[in-house]
Write a structure and sequence with these properties.
Elements (H helix, E strand, L loop, with lengths): L1 H21 L2 E6 L5 E7 L2 E9 L5 E7 L2 E9 L5 E7 L2 E9 L5 E7 L2 E9 L5 E2 L23 E8 L9 E9 L6 E4 L23 H14 L1 H36 L1 H37 L16
Antiparallel strand pairs: 1-2, 2-3, 3-4, 4-5, 5-6, 6-7, 7-8, 8-9, 9-10, 11-12, 12-13
Helix pairs in contact: 2-3, 2-4, 3-4
């Protein structure tokens, strides 16, 4: 009796799948945003692979789910720019590549149409701006030219937001220490001034001052003095701070647009104030990080034969 029940269940399940598969048809329709779609459809909506054209010249070719761009696809803009990659509910979301009209391109992660997380900005002149991957170590990338190394100071990473005005469409992430143990701090390209601790010059006397450069280098020096116990905690702390700043930058985009729509002066003042606040916050954080890191380093030096009872640094 159980045998026949199992056979009936399996037959019913296959019948449902067959009925569902039969509903996928080829057709055309007008999408909710006015595009003309041609391709696979289910219940009158785009579902599966297809292509859409809009009156303004934009086109999309790729996958749909329940009438929305979802899966993998390519969106070509009328101005020549193009996005290839993953989509979720009509948004560029996941891994993707954006090709700019000036021949630059961004390869990396996206979150609801915004660049986010790890990514690399390739510039038409051959420069490459990295997220966190050390690409020269990856087989096949030996011919790439590095813009920064783990021990190089004053490393810049450029993030581009094409929807912003040209004078402020880039966010520069700057580290004053080195790329491995110093934090990257962002600022929009429209700023009219920089944080005061950036402006303190180094001198030839060897005197340590309270500049942003010196506090970042101090953190780097201690972290690299005992990588096994001190390094990873610094990296983890900096990464958490950078992720929060990235979230703050993305959240600020609507206000940046609104301020520049009001006037050039209002926009410049807003992005300058934002950069000052972030830089000051991270300078104070670096001071606190240095003190806690230095304390753990000194404690670990006390009678720790064979690394016994040494503490692994974690920033609270």
């Amino acid at each position: 009796m159980k045998k026949y029940i199992y056979q009936f269940v399996i037959f019913s399940f296959l019948s449902i799948l067959s009925a569902h598969a039969q509903k996928i048809t080829l057709g055309s329709c007008t999408t909710r945003d006015g595009g003309q779609y041609t391709g696979e459809m289910y219940s009158g909506h785009p579902y599966g692979k297809g292509s859409t054209k809009w009156k303004n010249g934009d086109t999309y070719e790729g996958e749909y789910v329940k009438g929305k761009r979802q899966g993998k696809g390519t969106f070509s803009f009328a101005d020549g720019e193009k996005y290839e990659g993953e989509w979720f509910q009509d948004h560029q979301h996941g891994q993707g590549t954006y090709y700019f009209s000036n021949n630059n391109k961004y390869v990396g992660l996206w979150f609801r149409d915004q660049q986010q997380g790890h990514g690399i900005m390739y510039y038409y002149n051959g420069d490459r701006y990295e997220g966190t991957a050390y690409d020269l170590a990856i087989p096949g990338n030996e011919g790439n030219r590095a813009i920064g190394t783990t021990r190089q100071s004053d490393v810049h990473i450029i993030q581009t937001f094409a929807e912003l005005p040209a004078n402020t469409c880039q966010v520069q992430w700057l580290t004053m220490g080195n790329a491995e143990h110093a934090i990257f701090v962002p600022a929009f390209s429209g700023i009219t001034d920089t944080y005061e601790k950036y402006k303190i010059d180094n001198d030839e006397s060897g005197t340590i001052n309270d500049s942003y450069y010196y506090i970042c280098k101090a953190v780097c020096a201690i972290a690299e003095s005992d990588r096994e116990f001190l390094s990873q905690g610094v990296k983890d702390y900096n990464l958490a701070q950078e992720q929060q700043m990235l979230a703050d930058i993305l959240a600020a985009l609507p206000t940046v647009q609104a301020q520049y729509a009001e006037s050039q002066e209002a926009g410049d003042q807003y992005v300058t104030d934002l950069a000052m606040t972030m830089a000051e916050t991270q300078y104070n954080n670096a001071q606190a990080l240095f003190k806690k890191l230095f304390y753990v380093q000194m404690d670990n030096l006390n009678d720790r034969a064979g690394n016994a009872r040494k503490h692994t640094f974690v920033m609270p």
